[in-house]
Amino acid sequence: MRDEERGDVVSDVDTVTNERWLIDIAWRLDSLRWVPTGVLGDIAVRDGACMAAYAAGDPPGWLGHEQPDRALAARLCAGCPVQDQCLELELRTAGEDTVGVWGALSEVDRRALLGYWRQRGDRADDRGVGR
């Protein structure tokens, strides 16, 4: 089996480990299940590390670097206090159409997470977006 993003060969053990990792993230996001989407957006904009980079005026230094999404996500979101809120917001609002880096995860990882996240049930303001 090949990892889509890196082209690496992935073993069955890696697949099980990755599945467990995604399930753990989905469970962790349950703490945000009933937080209204607008509140999540306000938190992400106010406290997100990437938003602070844009607030400085100049484009952040990480833009334009050719890095795999996972490496960029790790670099961009390292130490961000609102990774979970950001991730929950993106899953709700973009669903399968997710692009870029959100909540310290790459597009590929968020798409893989989406099914596990959906299994956790409805969310506040759930109107079918991202479902």
Q: Could you walk me through the main structural features you see in this protein, from its secondary elements to its overall organization?
A:
This protein is mainly alpha-helical. Helices cover 53% and strands 0% of the residues. Helix 1 (12-29) crosses helix 6 and helix 2 crosses helix 5 (83-94). It is globular. The model has no long low-confidence stretch (mean pLDDT 81).
Task: Pick out its properties.
131 residues, mainly alpha, 6 helices, 53% helix
Offer a concise description of the structure.
The protein has 131 residues and is mainly α.
Q: How many strand units?
A: 0
User: Biggest β-sheet, characterized?
Assistant: none
User: H/E order of the elements?
Assistant: HHHHHH
Output the number of helix runs. Answer: 6
Overall helicity: 40-55%
Question: Judging from the principal axes of the Cα atoms, what is the shape?
Answer: globular
Give the mean pLDDT: 81
Q: Distance N terminus to C terminus?
A: 28 Å
What structural class do you assign from the helix and strand content?
Answer: mainly alpha
Name the poorly predicted regions.
none
Task: Provide the gyration radius in Å.
Answer: 15 Å
Name the beta content range. Answer: under 5%
